[in-house]
Write a structure and sequence with these properties.
By secondary structure, the protein is an alpha+beta fold. The chain is 42% helix and 28% strand. The strands form two sheets. It has a three-stranded antiparallel sheet with strand order 1-2-5. Strands 3-4 form a two-stranded antiparallel ribbon. Helix 1 crosses helix 2. It is elongated.
Length: 96
Amino acid sequence: MAMTKAGLISMISDTAIIDKKLAERSVETIIEIIKSALESGEEVLISGFGKFCVNQKKKRKGRNPATGDGMMLPSRKVVTFKCSGKLRKQMNQKKR
């Protein structure tokens, strides 16, 4: 099951022993700051966690799955995430 924003807010509230409203405002603020930075073309680097980047994809040939007709897909921007070496190492450690 995926971690949701509500679950994250609840965990922050419980772990940091703060009001849920404050935890919700904090999470919302962090998300808005990250979105704003990515919109302006900046990379977002969170030490020990990873880096969010915006990449430009070129237009390309595609196919309509319903009809099978060929079509050109427009260029677009995509957000990518590359985890840090620390996080990768932590995720790949064997549980005992």
